[in-house]
Amino acid sequence: MLKIMNDLPGSILGVSAEGKITGTDYETVLIPAIEEKLKTNKKIRMLYHLGNNFTGFDLNAMVDDAKIGMKHLSAWDRIALVSDHELINTFAKFFGHLLSCELRIFKNAELEEAIKWITD
Known about the structure:
By secondary structure, the chain is an alpha/beta fold. It is 42% helix and 34% strand. The protein is built from 4 helices and 5 strands, in the order ββαβαβαβα. α3 links the parallel β4 and β5.
């Protein structure tokens, strides 16, 4: 399940993931939230928190993630990934080089530091 983090400034989209993330989660929560932010912001910053209860992505979620990232390739200002999942962090570092924005990876214990970085 994806939840929007509502306590962040206007141009920042915060998302928290718990359990297994599905394509439906992307289609009903994340993609509409991104589209809504882009109505009022030319560039957005995103904080993506994969918490302790996160168990993974299904194939549809992974496809939707790639599609939305590529569709709005120039819309990203900064991305903070907060995760203790080493495989996901490794993939993010690898694919982060394809992005035109800054990507930083934080551990779950560094969530407050990630929020500070994404809001500065």
